[in-house]
Amino acid sequence: MAGEVSALVARAQAGDAEAFGLLYDRHVDQLYRFLSSQVRDRQTAEDLTSETFLRALHNLSAFRPGGDFGTWLTAIARNLAGAHESHTVEFPVAEVHLQAEPASDPATTAVDRLAHAALIAGVDQLSAPQRQCIVLRYWRELSIDETAQAMGKTPKAIKGLQHKALNALRGLLPSGVVMPA
């Protein structure tokens, strides 16, 4: 998959509009979800998603072969969201979905959904950098290095930020809510 993305990036850098369209299709949903976690307004998230891809297209020559295109897009999006929102950003519960399949038992499904809502509400109370770290690490499933690149920090700083965020989250959640692993 990484090789396929690298080939698409190389084609797009050579001026192949169809290749850039395929890159857009591959990354737009994740990028929108990330931006939705940074700004509360759906229209703003859509606008910032479009702006991210526009900037990526205009600066495609700056992307280095061997880099992770999704992480590069996330860094652009993070910068745009940061420029747009100078105040504390809320985490939109409606934009984050359960990763696991619903249980066959309706009571278990209801408990799982309540726990999920409590987790999202807890994340919403974290500081903006902590929230961004948690979103990138657990919802976008980026590695420490990819998160560091996307946030413009060192991997060591991300490890510390993640540790502080998880500790803060533990104090915000009711007992019985499962924390991210």
Quick tags:
single chain, 181 residues, mainly alpha, Rna Polymerase Sigma Factor, Chain: A, Arc Repressor Mutant, subunit A, 2 domains, 8 helices
CATH superfamily of the largest domain: RNA polymerase sigma factor, region 2, helix turn helix motif
Structural class: mainly alpha
Instruction: Specify the helix fraction band.
Output: 55-70%
Radius of gyration of CA atoms, rounded to a whole number = 17 Å
Secondary-structure element series: HHHHHHHH
Enumerate the spans where pLDDT stays under 50 for 5 or more consecutive residues: 86-103
Shape: elongated
Mean pLDDT across the residues is 78
| CATH-defined architecture of the largest domain | Orthogonal Bundle
Number of strands: 0
Q: How far is it from the N-terminal to the C-terminal residue, by CA? A: 25 Å
Fraction of residues in β-strands: under 5%
Total discrete domains: 2
Largest sheet: none
CATH class of the largest domain: Mainly Alpha
CATH topology of the largest domain: Rna Polymerase Sigma Factor, Chain: A
Note the total helix count. 8
What does this protein look like?
- The chain is mainly alpha-helical.
- It folds into 2 domains: 2-84, RNA polymerase sigma factor, region 2, helix turn helix motif (Rna Polymerase Sigma Factor, Chain: A); 95-172, Arc Repressor Mutant, subunit A, CATH 1.10.10.10.
- Helix content is 69%, strand content 0%.
- It is built from 8 helices and no strands.
- Helix 2 (17-38) runs antiparallel to helix 3 (42-58) and helix 3 (42-58) crosses helix 4 (69-84).
- It is elongated and about 55 Å long.
- The two termini are 25 Å apart.
- Mean pLDDT is 78; it is low at 86-103.
